[in-house]
Amino acid sequence: MSQTAIATLLAIATSFYFLLSSPTTKHSYHSFFISTALSDNVSVAHHLRTLTRRPHVAGSEANAEAAAYVLSVFTSCNIQAHVAPYHVSLTYPVSRTLSLTRPPPADSPITFTLRQEIYDGDPYADVANQVLPTFHGYAKSGNVMGPAVYVNYGRVEDYATLKEMGVDVSGSVVLARYGEIYRGDIVHNAYEAGAIGALIYTDRKDYGGGGHDTKWFPDDKWMPPSGVQVGSVYDGAGDPTTPGWASSEGCERLSYEEVEKAGDVPLIPSLPISAADGETIMRSIDGKEANKDWQGDKDAPIYRVGPGPGVVNLSYTGENVIATIQNVIGVIAGTEEPDRFVILGNHRDAWTFGAVDPNSGTAALLEVAERLQKLQKRGSTEWVEENREILASRAVAYLNVDSAVHGAGFRASATPQLDELLKQATQQVQDPDNSSQTIYEAWVGSSNSPVIGRLGGGGSDYGAFVQHIGVPAADISFGKGAHDNRFLIEGQPHFKANTPAEDTQYTTQCTMTSSGWKNLGTQCSKDSCRTAASVWGLVALRLADEEFLPFNYLSYAYELQKSAKELEVEVSGKGISLSPLFKSIKELSEAATKIENQKKAIEEAKGWVSKWKRDHFKVRELNDRLMMAERAFTDRDGLFRRPWYKHLIYAPSKHNDYGSKSFPGIDDAIEEAKNLNTAESWYTVQHEVWRVSRTVRHASLVLNGVLT
Ligand SMILES: *[C@@H]1O[C@H](CO)[C@@H](O)[C@H](O)[C@H]1NC(C)=O
Ligand SMILES: *[C@@H]1O[C@H](CO)[C@@H](O)[C@H](O)[C@H]1NC(C)=O
Ligand SMILES: *[C@@H]1O[C@H](CO)[C@@H](O)[C@H](O)[C@H]1NC(C)=O
């Protein structure tokens, strides 16, 4: 996650196989690709060290240097590469102050230093001054003063609880803890509740293992008391001044006033603060005792909700600048089908050093490039917006990696037609942490089938591909963060206070040493990074090389059926009919079966002869249908009041950008109808059900390929 998506993209031509100099079978060269023969032990670590030597926030000179490095590696791999610059609106902090006044008999007001400590022996201490002061990207500038109110995670339901307790939030500065929802939504929900400012802190209970005997970085994996999670609070996608179009030089741009009116940037100031500062403010809050599940760890004081009597004075000034960012685009052009691509991508800019998010991903991508080169023996929101029409007609799939490695355990999210392929690819690659099993076996664990996430969340580069134009996509990484509630330390000094925004994932940290990564109690090594490169590259090569695109739409129908069943429970008794939706899903399932049979028929008609003796046109026509079916889930008008989000199956939910729900439009409508409870609001829910049903039906029509 970054202020605005900035990417390294590698487009691999379909039929990569035909670019190989020596004839070989596809199967054997795919095995060769993932074998250790192509991978050395130093490359990944070297890339990572070079990319993370300095903090490289978007728009900085250090990030331009990192782009030049990526370009040079691509070029040295004989990959045609170029830099596509965009001119985007970014924000940087200019000044911040925070003070707390407590009622007598307390002493004089406390002024917080807002500084993260550098630890003894930090090998990156010399460049620590290049780390930006802690702030929220796209935060509102202003000075506000008000009593502090503790609002737990700042979710809509937390404000409902406060209301039941009779606590008035209006005019207050809320103290929320990081954890359950996207920080932009924490600020937005605070504004909706009438607060004038928001402070978001890192509670030890969520990020520190609990208890004051906890050790922290660099002695253990937890974030130190002065560590601060930074990140963006923007609720939209890409550059806020160019919603839906590319930020090229001299392009049309909204004024900042217009951006504020559009409603995706916060309208009240906010600051991220440390566990230590959060606790100091917490101690100044009196009033009713907060619920049990709002409390801290065993050594924490009792949390109360306020308001006050502690009064917070928060002031933040940011500057809006138009900065140049660089997408590095590498293209391996094909000979057989030069108009089709599989795209691999990762953003490059980091809030600080980015050892995990995103540069473990960048290092893995460079490793993929190097291996492809050896085989041959010879940012994306803005980029997507600009190349929308070409991508919509030519991109086969987009494969994303933000953080290649932030712990142990394989994790994948995908649009469902890729499920089978992911399962198959992981069955071919060995688990880096246990040589007697495959990644698949480790991933499945004791269940029958692995858990594959979906791509409805915001905050990563796949968003533009899936949610804006409907390109099938996958996102992979090592590190099961979502459930283990820890904090990511993104590299070295200053604790890189950035939970990878891609999730509410509080992952473990890796620090990089000259031999790779220092491993603090978790499996996090350059071997994992190389393994990520193996899976990533293998999935790409299978997509590029299979005669028939390895897309299975039966999985899609199955997933939709599951989500529709969940919906049934939510709307029961409200007079909503889901039968159009179930009917369209049944049609999709039939179309998916039919196209599988057609595939078999083409194969059988020609028998086991060389693919080029088959009816090439028929194969291509069938692949077109497989490729374009995903586009059919997009709707020209997009989601209600969120027109950038065209995909009606996967998009962020309105009150939590990280939430990955299916049917976001129906979900938003239900949320609103539950609040208003009018006939009209429930009618809107029914309308959204119809809209989704129509796109699902369109997808089955595309798969069928026959005019109605
Ligand atoms: C590379 O590392 C692996 C273990 O990760 C080891 O088995 C192998 O011998 C190493 N190769 C070289 C050339 O150091
Ligand atoms: C609040 O903080 C601002 C900025 O530091 C300062 O100018 C102002 O005087 C403070 N207000 C009070 C009442 O202390
Ligand atoms: C390694 O994998 C094997 C096969 O799945 C399993 O039996 C064994 O317990 C695993 N070892 C560890 C340390 O997890």
Automatic annotation (TrEMBL):
Keywords: Glycoprotein, Signal. Belongs to the peptidase M28 family. M28B subfamily. InterPro entries: PA_dom_sf, PA_domain, Peptidase_M28, Peptidase_M28B, TFR-like_dimer_dom, TFR-like_dimer_dom_sf. It holds the Pfam family PA. Residues 145-230 form the PA domain. This is Uncharacterized protein. Residues 327-478 form the Peptidase M28 domain. SUPFAM superfamilies: PA domain, Transferrin receptor-like dimerisation domain, Zn-dependent exopeptidases. Residues 1-21 form the signal peptide. The keyword Signal applies. Residues 576-703 form the Transferrin receptor-like dimerisation domain.
